[in-house]
Amino acid sequence: MGLDEEQLEAFWRTGRDHAGNTAEPFVDREGGWPLRCCLRDSRAGEELAIVAWSPFRWRGPYAEVGPIVVHAQPCESRHEGGQVPVQFRTRRQILRPYGRDRRIAYDRLRLVRPDGDIDRAIAELLDMEDIAFVQVRNPLSGCYSFAVERADPTESSVDATSGMSGA
Q1: 32, 47, 71: which is the final residue of a domain?
Q2: How many beta carbons lie within 10 A of that of residue 153, not counting itself?
Q3: CA–CA dist 149, 92 (Å, integer)
Q4: Spatial separation of the C-alpha atoms in residues 111 and 120, rounded to whole Å
Q5: CA-closest candidate to residue 136, choices 125, 167, 10
Q6: FRET pair for 65, CA 20 to 30 Å: which of 8, 15, 18, 111?
Q7: What's the pLDDT tens digit per position in 83-128?
Q8: Do 96 and 62 have their domain in common?
Q9: Residues 90 and 151 in one domain
Q10: What is the mean pLDDT of residues 152-163?
């Protein structure tokens, strides 16, 4: 799941990120930035912004804010979901599972290597009864990539963003 649409629209309308910073757009000269708004890599010439973002709707010690890259203006396409975006299959990713208590399940963190079976690894985590959702993150910087929820969102008591549903 990509970023919450309402929060993205608010950012594009106001130019302010989740920390209250004013966006400082820049032109991407080479392409390849991992965009969180549409879950694809940027192309040379696109106008981007690095913003402070929290993929959570609740406040608490595990609901951190961190940097992500988005289009500086509304973009045309969104990732439809249902499968891991192609570019994430060729990158190392950390799978960070969260329990129903909104805490990171540290003992279940996983590193998925390039061309590893990220779909299988996510499915295995979500098959665990006590896991509500999984965030996928960059292993070096820790930056948020996207999130995956349980197949039946009514099973979760989590109220999160990025397309994750709560009961």
Answers
A1: 71
A2: 15
A3: 20
A4: 13
A5: 125
A6: 111
A7: 788 888 889 999 999 999 999 999 999 999 987 789 999 999 999 9
A8: no
A9: yes
A10: 43
Distance of alpha carbon 141 from alpha carbon 26, whole angstroms: 21
Whole-prediction pTM: 0.82
Least confident of 13-22, 35-44, 47-56, 58-67: 58-67
Closest by alpha carbon to 124, among 89, 163, 97?
97
Q: Give percent of the chain with pLDDT exceeding 90.
A: 62
CA distance linking residue 84 with residue 143, whole number of Å: 17
pLDDT at 166 > cutoff 50: no
> Is residue 70 within 8 Å of residue 51, measured between CB atoms?
yes
Q: How far apart are CA 133 and CA 148, in angstroms?
A: 6
Range of the domain at 20: 5-71
Cβ-proximal residues to 165 (8 Å cutoff; 6+ apart), any chain: 149, 153, 154, 156
What is the pLDDT averaged over residues 129-158? 80
Query: CA–CA separation, 32 vs 48, rounded Å?
Result: 11
66 and 118 share a domain?
no
